[in-house]
Design brief:
The protein is α+β, with helices and mostly antiparallel strands. Helices cover about 45% and strands about 25% of the residues. Strand 1 and strand 2 form a beta hairpin.
Length: about 80
């Protein structure tokens, strides 16, 4: 009987660890919205686009690609900020 209680206790502890590590508020399946500004020759050009991404770096990659490939606008780099 003592052995069975030990196994059940280990199982409950393991289940608790899986539950608490598996449910993290930091991990989100939804992407965040970023506002991204276009720069040419080191100067902002005015206007912005919104992109959805999981990080600022990803947002800047997406925005740069959108400005250059989809909008055909000369863009040296972009700066993005999280949109509340």
């Amino acid at each position: 009987m003592h052995k069975v209680k030990g196994i059940i206790s280990i199982g409950l502890i393991g289940l608790g660890v899986v539950f608490f590590t598996g449910v993290s508020p930091k991990i989100s399946l939804a992407e965040d919205t970023y506002i991204c500004y276009r720069y040419v020759d080191g100067e902002p050009t005015g206007g912005f686009i919104k992109v959805k991404a999981n990080s600022k770096e990803e947002a800047e990659r997406k925005a740069l690609r959108e400005y250059r490939e989809k909008l055909n606008m000369r863009t040296d780099y972009v700066k993005c900020e999280y949109s509340w």
